[in-house]
Design goal:
Length: about 350
């Protein structure tokens, strides 16, 4: 099999963790007789530096013509980076919003799994972490507050800002269907998260999810308010299987879920549209404070590569091989600094990539 992958290494630690992911993908290709062709494009701060835009039309065209996109992290330190002195539509994150919208990537999948070997890194109390957890957050990605009309203007001598949170029935229905299909091949349970006691958009969300649920009688559905779900993620994360929610709630809850895995460096992510095309990235940020030091954890990005093989290329056996290689390396005690404790074998970013590639 031959596949064309658009590679966006991005900013901060992005180039380091993406390079290790490409190394692992090449190991998969060699073992299973696949060829992955990479075309590198710029997005984020590095694109602003080179072209004055967070994402050029030329880069977007290359992404659209590829079979999938592999992304590192974009942006920098919001308090010191000159990029954040620019208008919002010129900042690094504007490129990410643009590529999601232009590629039609409406479904964001973020698995959160606690490896037994990392139970000590979980910040939850021992009795809670001992249960373990294995969930996937399905977040609507191209609607809601982040894509509604916004403005800041002066009214009666003071600045007033507004952001519109808008969802249509069709937007909610397509993400709900995606979540139910995923639940059907997992443990057949969906927790739909909203704020239906306050927001009209959430009441519509709950109505549409209930309508979709009628087509999936084998899947258990519960509704949970977002503030309660944030508490339950800490108190009893093992209760969750598939968590379905809207854009902003999903953004916040998936970061919370990442931290109870022990490190945000462990959490992969896939953004999908209706067909097989997807964009794959780690859930963490660009971590400019450790960029270039060869200490970042590449596992989240490597696992995102495994998701690409599974969801975009239907290479389930190859995806399993990467995921098993990660488990093997962790069982052998190898750790990057973010998950290291006394007695472990501390390794660098590149060494972790080498270890995982060698065990594919």
């Amino acid at each position: 099999m031959e596949k064309n992958i658009a590679v966006i290494k991005g900013d901060g630690i992005g180039p380091e963790v993406v390079s290790e992911t490409m190394k692992v993908l090449d190991a998969v290709g060699q073992k299973y007789n696949h060829q992955f062709h990479y075309t590198q494009i710029l997005m984020g701060g590095c694109s602003i530096d080179a072209y004055g835009e967070p994402l050029t039309d030329e880069a977007l065209a290359i992404a659209k013509s590829s079979d999938a996109v592999l992304l590192g992290s974009i942006g920098g330190n919001t308090s010191t980076s000159p990029w954040y002195k620019l208008s919002p539509n010129k900042r690094p994150e504007a490129g990410l919003l643009k590529i999601r919208k232009e590629l039609g990537l409406f479904a964001n999948l973020r698995p959160a799994y606690l490896y037994p070997e990392l139970a000590d890194a979980c910040p939850l109390k021992e009795a809670t972490s001992a249960k373990g957890f294995d969930m996937i957050i399905v977040r609507e990605l191209t609607g809601g507050l982040y894509f509604g009309e916004r403005s800041t203007k002066e009214v009666n001598g003071e600045l007033v800002a507004h952001d519109n949170l808008i969802y249509s029935e069709s937007e909610i229905r397509r993400i709900a269907i995606k979540a139910f299909e995923i639940a059907r091949v997992r443990r057949k349970k969906i927790t739909s998260v909203d704020k239906a006691n306050v927001l009209d958009s959430s009441r519509l969300w709950r109505k549409v999810v209930n309508e979709v649920a009628k087509d999936y009688p084998d899947v258990e559905v519960e509704h949970m308010l977002v503030d309660n779900s944030a508490m339950q993620l800490v108190a009893n994360p093992s209760q969750f299987d598939v968590v379905l929610t809207e854009n902003m709630f999903g953004d916040i809850l998936s970061d919370e879920a990442s931290m109870i895995t022990g490190s945000i460096g462990m959490l992969s992510s896939a953004s999908l549209r209706e067909d097989k095309f997807g964009l794959y990235e780690p859930s963490g940020g660009s971590a400019p404070d450790i960029a270039g030091k060869n200490v970042a954890n590449p596992i989240a990005t490597i696992l995102s590569g495994a998701m690409m093989l599974r969801y975009s290329f239907d290479l389930n056996k190859e995806a399993d091989a990467i995921e098993q290689a990660v488990r093997d390396v962790l069982k052998e005690g190898y750790r990057t600094v973010d998950i290291y404790k006394d007695g472990d074998k501390k390794v660098s970013t590149s060494e972790m990539g080498d270890l995982i590639a060698s065990r594919v």
